[in-house]
Amino acid sequence: QVQLVESGGGLVQPGGSLSLSCAVSGSIVSRYAMEWYRQAPGKQREFVARLYSGDITYYSDSVKSRFTITRDNANNTLYLQMTSLKSEATAVYYCSVFMSAHQFWGQGTQVTVSS
């Protein structure tokens, strides 16, 4: 079974930083492109960042230069380092992988940016 478990969400002040983690089953994180998405209340789920095999990255314009996606192959973990957080970053953050013709999602972790 493919499993993805996000963690690290919480409350952070505007301008602050937060790092999210996604524990992935097996060696999936080292073999497939991994992604982060987020969904704010009442809004559609939106793409945040992607990490391709070969460590090529791609970011949405809204988070570029402030968010960094990385992976730790030895620990089968995907990360999202977030800095200079704005209130609009408040959302449930999900990690994801596409494999075997299916899109797999974690349960999500809540990030709230507020003073």
Q: Give the terminus-to-terminus CA distance.
A: 40 Å
The overall average pLDDT, rounded, is 96
Task: Give the helix proportion (percent range).
Answer: under 10%
Radius of gyration: 13 Å
Q: Secondary-structure element order, as H and E?
A: EEEHEEEEEEEE
Write down the overall geometry: globular
Work out the strand percent. Answer: over 45%
Annotation field: number of helices: 1
Q: Class by helix and strand content?
A: mainly beta
Total beta strands: 11
Low confidence ranges: none
The main pleated sheet reads as:
7 strands, mixed
Quick overview of this protein structure:
This protein is mainly beta and 115 residues long. It is 3% helix and 51% strand. 27% of the residues are buried.
Characteristic key phrases:
single chain; 115 residues; mainly beta; four-stranded antiparallel β-sheet
Summarize the structure in words:
By secondary structure, the protein is mainly beta. The protein is 3% helix and 51% strand. The chain is built from one helix and eleven strands; from the N terminus they run βββαββββββββ. It has one helix spanning 28-31, and strands spanning 4-7, 10-12, 18-24, 34-39, 46-51, 57-59, 67-72, 77-82, 91-99, 102-105, 109-113. Strands 2, 4, 5, 6, 9, 10 and 11 form a seven-stranded mixed β-sheet that branches. Strands 1-3-8-7 form a four-stranded antiparallel β-sheet. A hairpin with a 4-residue loop joins strand 7 (67-72) and strand 8 (77-82). The chain is globular and about 40 Å long.
